[in-house]
What does this fold into?
Amino acid sequence: DQQVKQNSPSLSVQEGRISILNCDYTNSMFDYFLWYKKYPAEGPTFLISISSIKDKNEDGRFTVFLNKSAKHLSLHIVPSQPGDSAVYFCAASSFVQGAQKLVFGQGTRLTINP
Amino acid sequence: ETGVTQSPTHLIKTRGQQVTLRCSSQSGHNTVSWYQQALGQGPQFIFQYYREEENGRGNFPPRFSGLQFPNYSSELNVNALELDDSALYLCASGGADTGELFFGEGSRLTVL
It folds into this structure.
């Protein structure tokens, strides 16, 4: 039962253009969402997050949008840079027995072409 | 640089053996979580420790166990290793009142 889905395994974008990564979830109890970036041989690096009481959060070139009615979130990167090439994971936060648990999507590999 | 360090970075074990993975989390973070990431998948929650007690577990059998120590270090132990246990094991720490988790670089376990 995949509660968090990233339906695009890969995405290729021209440098300077906008990258849009999408994520869908099924559990309406999720109240906090995060995006992580992962390079090979490294652990995931936290990028940006959004609470379910908001519909947008911006941090520099990164903006996350949340559409609760559609159970959909997206990460926009503009302008895209070659260093943004990595695997991006969305994650939804829930609590199990008092512990915070992140449920991750399968990841989208973003390639920025010069 | 997340302040979370893991060891060893790589190791190879054979089926049936036991393994201990170690994590040193960020000072001031009182929760530590362990995740398993299989190839081509997102990380999956194993369990979380808060104040040295396990306070939440994902869908992993009891042969996955852990410890958290007062000095912000922790261990993941896996007994009776199976081939499917081959994965990247990630440790993450965070404050109890924040949503973000900060991950280490992981320990890649190969079971032959």
